[in-house]
Amino acid sequence: MGGTWVRGAMVAALALLSPVATHAAGVGGSGVPSAGGGFAGPADPGARGLFHNPAAALTGDSPELLVDVGFFAQDLDVTVLGIGVPQRTLDLIPHPSGSIAVPLGPVGLGVALHSPYSRGGDEDPNGPYRFYSIGSTLQLVETDVSAAVRVHDRLILGAGLRLGLFQFRSDSALDAGALLNDTLAPNPPLPVGDPLLEGQQRVGPMSGMSASWLVGAVVNLPADVKVSAAFRPKWVIPVTGPVELEPANDLNTFVAGEATVRMPFPASFMLAGSVPVGRVTLLPEVEYVGWSGASEIGLTISDLSLTSSDPLFDGVLQLSGLAEADFLASAEGDDPRLIGWHDILVPGMQVHWDTTELLDLRGGVWYGPTAVPDEVVNPGNVDFETITLRLAAAVQPHPVVRVAGVVESFISPERSVSGLPAPDVVLPSPDGTYDLDLWRFGATVQLFVPSKVNR
Which of 221, 361, 215, 213 is nearest to 280 (CA)? Predict the structure, then answer.
């Protein structure tokens, strides 16, 4: 029974974070439509389409290199009623991406590098929200290596290998008195909120790699109309790293061990089109994201021991046998967590206008419902219903170079939740208000071989 509070504290450190869209607070429950810059999308040719569809490796007119440098500007305001004090987080979050597409007659090869899921930040370690989080990082960096083949004049098929590097850490404050009262029921109970019984729980940094796959197709219809489709399966990436529990900041004594987290990322299916109307091209799209099939985060705790940063006291722990006590072994093992998200459908439309030989313009709009229902919202996983607006411009001063810029605004209504229970004996109910102001700014350079230009 003594290991119950150790396990509970370590599991709690993971319960507040889950993967969501590409910044510290989520919008629309899916990877936001920003990889590749303002002129990239699932129905775009060559390097611009590779972030969504492996068949795009064969749809450009010539070899292309694309580099996009962007960042999110985020203003997140959280007020949990049980805390009563608002917390405002201002962040500039880098979001670069890049791709290469090389068509070679009936086949094409491509590589795309992007970060479809990322969140995190650092907060005041003495602030009122420290029991939710002091600092956290969750990031997936994905490399897609793709190949495409033309099987018919009107059909291109593509497939790719997804290589993912996932990184994770989570630090938060710990009230040892509250945890021990809840699990061991001492008589008399220990004081709650006593600074002498406040410590920290640290998970990570962790990292791990895994591979998956993706498939896609492009169908060329009459009048230069194109239909693009792509599928990515559910992907579980295991990461391993240290865990550390410090029951009280002044004791210099830690429960340390190793944890393996199996983080799920959802399956998705995207369907898009390209319909030219004179100098304007309509680019409708819709994406299904299957969060309900990626609803469990796996956790395994192992190799727990009691140690101290004081060499003399650490020697005493080792000699006494407390460093490997039975209560530590009882805290080891598997403990999966259900995140309770639901599937969503994200429709969108872009309009591309070839104004002149030198200048192109593009606008876009997407609607993303939240994937996180009210009953599981907390300050660590808050996700917003969002309308995304895009405005982009590109100039081509030379046949081998195109330069573009983009501004994207993510319009989200304030989210208010009520009637939720407290997640544990330390944290108050997540009832409160959540408000997000989010923008993305980016610049893209696209290079072509001199012989042909993909306009």
Answer: 361
Mean pLDDT of all residues in 302-319:
59
pLDDT bucket at 311, cuts 50 / 70 / 90: low
Amino acid symbol at 245 = L
How confident is the model at residue 4, as a pLDDT? 47
DSSP 126: T
Q: Residue 198 is inside which H or E element, if any?
A: strand 198-220
What's the CA gap between 339 and 415, in Å, rounded? 19
Q: Can you tell me the distance from the alpha carbon of 355 to that of 1, in angstroms, rounded to the nearest whole number?
A: 71
Contact yes or no for 379/133 (Cβ under 8 A): yes
Q: How many residues does the chain have?
A: 455
**Residue 66 DSSP label:** E
Q: How far apart are CA 339 and CA 383, in angstroms?
A: 13
CA distance linking residue 44 with residue 220, whole number of Å: 13
Tokens of 318: 């080792």
Q: Where are the domains of the chain?
A: 4-448
Let me know: does 91 contact 72? Beta carbons within 8 Å. yes
User: What's the first-to-final CA gap in the chain, in angstroms?
Assistant: 68
Place of tokens 């046998």: 321
Of 18-22, 220-224, 429-433, which one has max mean pLDDT?
220-224
Q: Using omega within 30 degrees of 0 as the cis cutoff, is the peptide bond preceding 94 cis?
A: no
- pLDDT digits 0-9 by tens, 18-48: 444 333 344 444 444 578 999 999 999 999 9
Average pLDDT over residues 159-165: 96
Q: Which residue has the tokens 């992007």?
A: 114
3-state secondary structure at position 350: strand
Query: Which CATH class, in words, describes the domain spanning 4-448?
Result: mainly beta
d(CA 24, CA 384): 12
CA distances to 184, 187, 198, 328 from 202, rounded to whole Å, are 22, 29, 14, 17
pLDDT confidence of residue 317: 44
- Residue 115 scores a pLDDT above 50: yes
At residue 340's C-alpha, the angle toward residues 339 and 341, to 5°, is 100
